[in-house]
Amino acid sequence: MNVKAKKSLGQHFLKDEDTARRIAETISGPELPEGHPDWDTMPVLEVGPGMGVLSKYLLATGRSVKAVELDSESVGFLAGVYPDLHVTEADFLKLDLGTLFPGEFALIGNYPYNISSQIFFKVLDNRERIPVVAGMLQKEVAERICSGPGSKVYGILSVLLQAWYDCEYLFSVEPSVFAPPPKVRSGVLRLTRNSRTSLGCDPALFRRVVKTAFGQRRKTLRNSLAPLIPPGSPALLSELMPLRPERLSVEQFIELTNLIATKS
């Protein structure tokens, strides 16, 4: 397997067996939180399996495991070593996930660092079929997703994902367990779908408000959101206006979205 060829894809191969086992157990095994017994039988989709170090622990559970891999060399390698692993050669970001599973499934992977944010935006678009997401990505991105209001790293992904998922940062991983070693540390997280069925506001406007606010995060909301707020809007009188976006909870962003949508 030509490891150097993967660097252009942002892929670093996990070589440590204990770390691979622990990641697999985030959706099945000792790491499994109480209250989700169905996770032990739910089918699994692995993103970017590479040489299958994580795949073998997922297959050992006896569950239905499928994988999406962009690199044809990796696909051929996996077919020879793990014949029970159904691998689709495709770009995960462009794939219709409904073609792989008719219902719910768990998503897991050692996510390519250069597209990890796009992967989680796709999770949001498919949240009704993905009740649990786990895996490894760049530590600072994992921390950002799981951070709360008031944190310097709290941002767009934090708010959008936490609106629909309970986000847990589980453990950190050193560069030495990869080949080639990345220049950054990694983190493992788990996202569990919460009980929310509706935001209670216009979801498209909500996303726009969050992205616009954090696009100029050093400004107060009164200034950063000015292009979205019509004259005379009740939003202008909100006590949230003098704040910066990192101070607002998900519920406060929902409140602000509804105020902006209210006609004067």
Q: Can you characterise this structure?
A:
The protein is of the alpha/beta class. It has 2 domains: 191 residues, Rossmann fold (3-Layer(aba) Sandwich); 59 residues, Helicase, Ruva Protein, domain 3 (Orthogonal Bundle), CATH 1.10.8. The chain is 29% helix and 17% strand. The chain is built from 9 helices and 9 strands. It has a 7-stranded mixed sheet. Strands 1-8 form a two-stranded antiparallel ribbon. Helix 2 links the parallel strand 2 and strand 3. Helix 7 packs across helix 9. The longest helix is centred in the last third of the chain and has 13 residues. The termini are far apart. The N terminus is likely disordered.
Keywords:
single chain, 264 residues, alpha/beta, Rossmann fold, Helicase, Ruva Protein, domain 3, 2 domains, 7-stranded mixed beta sheet, two-stranded antiparallel ribbon, 9 helices, 29% helix, 17% strand, elongated, disordered N terminus
